[in-house]
């Protein structure tokens, strides 16, 4: 009986049907979420008083009823009238649902509160029994504020796992509480996520002033970025793009709204209510499509913005003290050229203008250190449109790549790994067995191959684990052989979107220092601890501090929960036994098992995730792997996926920017250059280089015996090219069989050394990874 949202009816049909719709609406719709009908253009309009009923958000007919009531615009003359789309007052709907949600939560928490909670940062316990007025984490912070050396607290970490809003009630699941500040990595991510909402608010406020469109702006998504800052993307009607003038105005609106110090208010509602609340935004509907039907949906309100979001968020917008729009760009929705173009706005915020100024200086330094810039200057690598996402390593870049692989190979020999080589492509039956066909097919390069049986689908491997499973199963194994450790440097291919390709950090073809360990369950703890020690040893050579996160079971996973719980407990125990600082990263595990993600902090205070250790009880089951146990029964091995550097290409990008292209001697592509003071000493220069290479064949040494540059110019060029050592030879050095040694730092000289002493210096630098 309900017509579609927008249809055309004559007066005679509307007169009879509208009476029926209005009668149904009186018993199911509240006028609180619907603006009253406009009477200016109508000779007969229903009275607002006739809709004095209760709004029931969970009703599946709510949206239809809204449509019905908003349809009562018709004339007494026999003309054709268009029924407009409904408009819902989201703020009133939010407020009604919030009041009910908070009341329910408050009552529930009042009956279920912990007696005591631990505060590790203060090394004390806090009694809630003695402080019944403390209901939320905000209350707790205000109580303890004078004892904490923290000016601003953004959120809390509960039980070393979950991050929650300060406004959240303290439930009986709370055992420990840590306060999070902007200095924490998670704190910055949370801060920038909250700032994205402020940007979304500014975009709605600004672009809704555009009178050329009925609904000029539809917000899409606004996440924080790992490298710092955030973006929000939105669809703008009529092909509207964002100009530099728009960016400046958005900045001003953001700071204007921040100064209002509005609360971030969270509620949890049903998915059905969320669909009603955001019924006019297809992008929010797409987000809702990905949420399971039985899950609650969290919605946040900050100022005039009401948005879908998991959170958590900062308490108030007033914590945002400085904002800057970095850039804007047009992107295809979902990366699909057939879809509409969205406007993406990148921005960054800080608690105060001083930090913003420091960031701007830092960004200038980043631009100089960018691995693409350094790579071009030092002739390390190149890119070409003929092979998008596939870097070309030039001779000097290949030297760095080879050094890294050689380092890992030496470590493998010392730590009991066996290097293997596995095929580049497999048929889809293997990927079905491994689970990649279900979970990873869209990110693979697939091809069809015809044989005598018809067509067979093949896929380039995105990872090595299925091939290593086949190699383990190739022969019968005894418990005495375990652990078996396979290491593989075979190239991997992943079908990244073209818009996501970025230098060496996001490529389609890469090499990973990949290894898989097959072990008994009683060996898991030691193997995990050995892997963690391996990571610590390697990263200390690059002066990169580490932090650890335990990533747990995701929404889509293989296997039973009992095995997952056992796997997560094994990783947790290994981290605690080594007394490493670690956190929980809920739901970010691989589909086949939990993992430990290792994050490094570079010299520009940026965080990068490179290494990973993943425990897997699932793939051995999928491939039916087995070994003969001590009691002569078939037993299932446990599989550990392990990468230390991760993608070697990405790691090279990280260390290039970390060192600003000033490579330590042991990994440098230009370790030394011999520079004669005049052509008379060219022969001696070549003699020095030859002797060094005879003693140390893996030394990268050049001889600048060309005469088109003057001596001082050669010195300057060698320093700019980041040669670690400049070896100057002249009459004195030739007679004494020595070299005058300088470093790349201007004006720094080591002095005269014999060639033998110089070789000892090189050996010492290499042995100490300097």
Report how far the terminal alpha carbons are from each other: 80 Å
Taking pLDDT < 50 over at least 5 consecutive residues as the criterion, the unreliable ranges are 1-84
Major beta-sheet overview: 9 strands, mixed
Given the C-alpha coordinates, what overall shape results? globular
Number of helices: 22
Q: What percent of residues adopt helix (DSSP H or I)?
A: 25-40%
Mean pLDDT: 85
Structural class of the helices, strands and pairings? alpha+beta
Rg on CA atoms, Å: 32 Å
Strand content: 15-25%
Number of strands: 35
Put the structure in a nutshell.
By secondary structure, this protein is of the alpha+beta class.
Walk me through this protein's architecture.
By secondary structure, the protein is an alpha+beta fold. Strands 17, 21, 22, 23, 24, 25, 26, 27 and 30 form a nine-stranded mixed beta sheet that branches. Strands 32-31-33-34-35 form a five-stranded mixed beta sheet, with helices on both faces. A four-stranded antiparallel beta sheet has the order 8-9-14-13.
